[in-house]
Amino acid sequence: MNRNLLAFGVQGHRLIIASNGYADIMQAVLLDTFGQGVQETSYAENVYLHPEMHNLSEYQTVHGSADDLVGKAKVNPSATMKAAAAILERHGSCNGVEEAMNRTIETLLRQDNATPDQGGSMTTSEFVDAALAHLADELSPSSTDKMDHPFPDDEKRYVPDAARLAMGMSTALLVIDFQNDFAPPPNEADPDAVSRTASLAANTSRVINSFRAQHREVIFLRFLGDVEYQSPSWQYRNRILNRKPFCLAGTPGADFIAPVQPAPGERVFDKRALFDAFLCPGFEAYLKERGYEHLVLLGLYSDVCVDATARTAFQKGFYVTLLEDCTLGLHLPAGEWTRLFKAVYGARVLASEQLVGMKV
């Protein structure tokens, strides 16, 4: 296997399962063999598969801890700085900082400003100071042609990029009330109900899988309509409209529509006879704790629970994206509720295929 990889390269995607020591060696060999840099200036993103840690991303220098250089001020900090820039870019809404860091390190090397492993004489601290000084110039107001506002300031925190999936912000996907009891029932007046639900489920699954593949969080909202959760006004409405409770806890009607299911470890918030997810205990606090600024919404129904959640999200300062082919209107036709989302919340309204195909 090793000879084939080194002789013929990697065709498509190749998964190597190996012990830690062996993988460390092969990573350095493959970087050099395929011209992807050297271990002293490279980092890797580690992904955890354990259900309790599946949302955790860790960025690690390829060269490891460099124990033999402890206290000698000779460690090349390039890999650590590149990893820090990747975290800021991908998880901290600092657009363009990865590219700026790479340019900075390349510039220093061309100027022979390097640590001993790269043929220079600088100490670790001297290299870091030089890199920070170069970055300060790179990110100064006079350099905005190089980089589009990578860091927030007091007057203008973000410049949302509507052409990118996450709009340059920390983003979560909310799957709202995508449950069996909310699926349109087949009847003579609506013979396409089953196929429409299947299409919604397929589109929703595609978006969820895309978020998971990018290690972005998927949060599920589940409506529970048990009588004991209903307020007096809710019970009164059901009585005068002759409505029976639905999505009862523990029943198939409250389950999510297959194949849409929370993965192990993904958060599920129960809306106990509530339209608005922000009324769920702990929901808003959780979003703030995770630092989310942009919410992508899908689920049932666009003009009821999805709208109630979008309305509060907008008023609390969240940017909103709605996926129009992953939701249905209960009382309003599609054109009306999409216009509402755009006009009232400034929401970005997209098809699932558009979102999945976007640059992150």
Top keywords for this entry?
single chain; 360 residues; alpha/beta; two-stranded antiparallel sheet; 11 helices; 8 strands; 36% helix; 13% strand
Report what the structure shows.
- This protein has eleven helices and eight strands.
- The protein has 360 residues and is α/β, with parallel strands linked by helices.
- Strand 3 (171-176), helix 6 (193-213) and strand 4 form a beta-alpha-beta unit.
- Helix 3 packs antiparallel against helix 4 (97-110) and helix 4 (97-110) packs across helix 5 (124-138).
- The longest helix has 21 residues, at 193-213.
- The two termini are 33 Å apart.
Strands, helices and their partners?
Elements: H1 2-8, H2 20-33, E1 43-47, E2 57-61, H3 78-91, H4 97-110, H5 124-138, E3 171-176, H6 193-213, E4 218-224, H7 232-240, E5 268-272, H8 283-290, E6 294-300, H9 305-315, E7 319-328, H10 334-345, E8 348-350, H11 352-356
Parallel strand pairs: 3-4, 3-6, 4-5, 6-7, 7-8
Antiparallel strand pairs: 1-2
